[in-house]
## 1
Amino acid sequence: MIYAGNFKTNHTRQSTREYLMKMQLHHHKIKEGDRVLIFPPITAIDNYDVNFTIGVQNAYPIQNGAFTGEVGVEQLEEFNIKTILIGHSERREVLGESQEFIAKKFNFFKDMGFEIIYCIGEPLEVREEGEEAVIKYLLTQFKGIDTEYDNFLVAYEPIWAIGTGRSATVEEIASTHNELKRYINKPLLYGGSVKGSNIAEISAIDNVDGVLVGGASLKTESFLELVLH
Ligand code: PEP
């Protein structure tokens, strides 16, 4: 299983360091073959001596240049960052990133050899139309994306399940993941209100290769509850 923690706009450099050091103490308990990735806010990126992958939640598709407020590859290289989240629904919905821009970002970071966790997810009104409508919607989010790229993982995160406490049901996750795997044969993570109380049933679903976690990743205790379940 892959366990990815997305801190979003939470934690400072100091609290991230404390968090990672605490996580590192439990590293030996992680099952062989399992993987942990942490995505702290950009100000907390540093050279940490830990056995987890540190990635960024976002970056601009440029080496360096005049992009006020953005961070390019030059700034990531300083900390040896080679993993990035692309297409998170908060960037699509709140920051207004279009599919065209997301595809541009994807292709840029692909060319740089980054590991990409590519997020997709439908709004509630699409889910209410049924599974067929969901798949049709999700497939539009692969427009311009090279789904054959080697260093590529997908995170299916229904928007209505993110940060709401309401996870998708086991049946919904199972059928959407099964269908998605018919089109894209890459590691497939589920995200949306994953927590200690539902990790066992979610991780047992066929075609769930991992989880992308927001809220429950913010404290080492609650994240370890998932990682070591
Ligand atoms: C997320 O935003 O990627 C996410 C899954 O958040 P949460 O776990 O809080 O629903």
## 2
Amino acid sequence: MAGAGPQPVDLLVTGIAQLATPRGSTPRTGADLDALQLVDDAAVAVDDGRVVAVGPEAELAPRHAPREVLDAAGGTVVPGFVDAHTHPVFDGTREAEFELRTRGATYVEIAEAGGGILSSVRGVRAASRERLEAGLLQRLDRFLALGTTTVEAKSGYGLTLADEVKCLEAIAAAGARHPVEVVPTFLGAHDFPPEFRDARERYVDLLHDEMLPRVRERGLAEYCDVFTEAHVFDLASSRRLMERARDLGFGVRMHVDQLTALGGAELAAELGAASADHLEFVSDAGIEALARADVVPVLCPLVPLYLRVEREVPARRMVAGGLAPALATDFNPGSCYCQSIPEVLTWAALRLGFTAGEALTAATLNAACSLGRGDRLGSLEPGKDADLVVLDVPDHRFLVYEFGRNPVRAVVKRGRVVHRRGEEAA
Ligand code: NIG
Ligand code: FE
């Protein structure tokens, strides 16, 4: 409409020294992984929860009449981080185990002595749903303060139908009350509970016959996951469970080839999984299989660091092989007690050889795609949800260059300013 004057919008983000975003709705690989759109002296116009325009402030400001202005004060704006792999529902921490590892014990030794996942199972079984929800809400506050606007959340420390449902209900309740978007995953196949220690096949039967269908019926999880590993679920039981999950309508995510070279990546490819996670021990054949099946590898570079394992995921070979990696924290009380995507980005650069652009794309657009949300999340483009982070640094490369400090100044989720520094708990 000629002469209509500036367009009224809900929010204009101004004062952005640099806006950095991947583009598109599909997973990025190869040179595209590093191909950010960069706009200096930028602004973002937002209306009805969505991005309306991204561009130079000098062009956007006169064209929009915002009801609210968020001044980025010379900072950098990036898409809200999408953390595609976390285990945030637990009660009680495992700092004593960490100390055992610093003295030389391995993750599997601790697990086989009844610690590890099973110690978190004791905590979750003893906790009420309300208590788990309260703990999760606090953790969601911290995710938000660190710039994460969408988080995948796994159950997996209950290991009975009732305790897993309790965890998934806590996820649903916390997700409904909190600005962070929470994507629920059922991980009943995380370990064998103590009461099935000597009857493992019976627990697989229980998952297959009872737990998976009941969880699905109740609509409590979008995805189903399994810890495919030599000391827990072998390839045959993982295949049986994930085929069942797929048939019931779950999306499939899998912990594979994390501690041993079992061939879990090939299985994830065969099953058409949405993601294959960890992959430190993936083979070249596994990388090829994942590429052919368009499975997103979700890399968790803090975990081997935290477990004191030398082996790194072959991230460069994956990118060369056409895979579109996502980066995640794997936040959990045992193998990574850290919720910070900015920290992950630095370690992805230092340990995996990612550029800042590659790391940012992996923790936004590619992660969103692994959660089936690439059309709506993961980049700042007209029509997408207005999920963005204001960083107090002048250039997106500080995301990898600087670490040990939270650079997040403010967070917008679906067009609402939901966090400003100084308002968080800690
Ligand atoms: O992703 N691999 C299995 N699960 C977690 C560890 C969970 C735990 O130790 O509590 C992981 O590393
Ligand atoms: Fe995990």
